[in-house]
Design goal:
Blueprint: E1 6-9, E2 12-15, H1 26-30, E3 33-35, E4 38-43, E5 46-50, H2 52-65, H3 74-87, E6 93-101, E7 115-122, H4 130-135, E8 137-141, H5 161-174, E9 179-183, E10 189-191, E11 196-201, E12 204-207, H6 218-229, E13 234-236, H7 241-245, E14 249-254, E15 258-265, E16 268-269, H8 277-290, E17 301-303
Parallel strand pairs: 8-9, 8-15, 12-13
Antiparallel strand pairs: 1-2, 1-7, 3-6, 4-5, 4-6, 5-17, 6-7, 9-10, 11-12, 11-14, 14-15, 15-16
This protein binds pyridoxal-5'-phosphate.
């Protein structure tokens, strides 16, 4: 990764290499941290953060589920992010706020320990490559089922959840694919290990509902809003694995992957085997919006 100058930790700007935690930090042992992935894009008016408020709201809601009390108001984290982007002279890139159960007592019970917060920013281009963004990626349906809300809350971006994602990711790459698609315990499609999935069939968009184990993705909400503005019908319903194979188009949405077409699933070519027309339309609009080129969506941007 590309280093920056400063990282924000518990209210202070720290040198990148000095932003460290104690080895007995609770979160390191038990996965007790909640994080966000946010992007900022270069616009004509300088860097702009995409849907910052929604990301910070989700961070706080996630901490609430784990009874973690962030000692900074939301507004302070929002200004810290803007300050950090300026301080590091970042034009575009990735923003990673993380709230974590800190160092004090050992053992599972976390409520006597502090909730610490850190925010890092760094330049980060496309997650699955420019080629993938343009022509699509190849996916494998994972043997690792998506976590279920009876086991861990999938709507919380808790680090513990990502152990499941990591296993799916390793398996997909070991098998020569670019990314995994995870089914839920009932066998329906849930999502990717770090992204939501959309299917295009007969001109309409279909994506699995939250109760299928799909994160309430901010990029997914944005893609659906864009689609609706184009007059494209959007549905949330359970998807069968075989519906992926016969889709006209498939794509992933997520802060990291942005909007990435899927051209193959388990050796089956999807649609024309490249980025489909509806995917292209939504993807192009998404980048136009994120880069501040469409004033009618400026409410989604926080200009730094
Ligand atoms: C498991 C999972 N699903 C979906 C997403 C996409 O969510 P968003 O668009 O809010 O980044 C992410 C990334 O945050 C994720 O980790």
């Amino acid at each position: 990764m590309e280093k920056c100058k400063k990282i924000w930790m518990n209210g202070e700007m720290i040198d990148w290499d000095k932003a460290q935690v104690h080895i007995l930090t609770h979160a390191l042992h038990y996965g007790t941290s909640v994080f966000e992935g946010i992007r900022c894009y270069e616009t004509e008016k300088g860097p702009a953060v995409f849907r910052l408020k929604e990301h910070i709201d989700r961070l706080f809601a996630g901490c609430h589920a784990y009874r973690m009390k962030i000692r900074h108001p939301k507004e302070e984290l929002i200004s810290a992010i803007c300050e950090l982007i300026k301080e590091n002279e970042l034009k575009s890139g990735y923003i990673r706020p993380i709230a974590y159960v800190g160092y004090k007592e050992m053992g599972l019970f976390p409520l006597n320990n502090p909730t610490d917060v850190a925010i890092a920013v760094w330049p980060w281009g496309t997650y699955l490559g420019e080629e993938g963004l343009k022509n699509g990626i190849r996916c494998k349906v994972s043997s690792w089922l998506r976590i279920d809300s009876r086991i861990l809350p999938p709507q919380v971006k808790c680090s513990a959840n990502y152990a499941n994602s990591v296993l799916a990711k390793i398996e997909a790459l070991d098998c020569g694919y670019n990314e995994a698609i995870q089914l839920n315990l009932a066998g329906f499609v849930a999502e990717g290990p770090g992204e939501n999935i959309f299917l295009v069939k007969n001109g309409a968009l279909i994506t699995p509902p939250e109760d299928a184990g799909a994160l309430y993705g901010i990029t997914a909400q944005s893609a659906m809003a864009i689609a609706k503005d184009f007059g494209i019908e959007c549905l949330k319903r359970n998807l069968l694995r075989e519906e992926l194979f016969s889709a006209d188009e498939l794509f992933f949405t997520g802060t990291a992957v942005e909007i990435t077409p899927i051209r193959e699933v388990d050796g089956r070519v999807i649609g024309e085997g490249t980025r489909g027309e509806i995917t292209r339309k939504i993807q192009e609009k998404f980048f136009e919006v994120a880069k501040g080129k469409d004033p009618s969506y400026h409410s989604w941007l926080t200009f730094v």
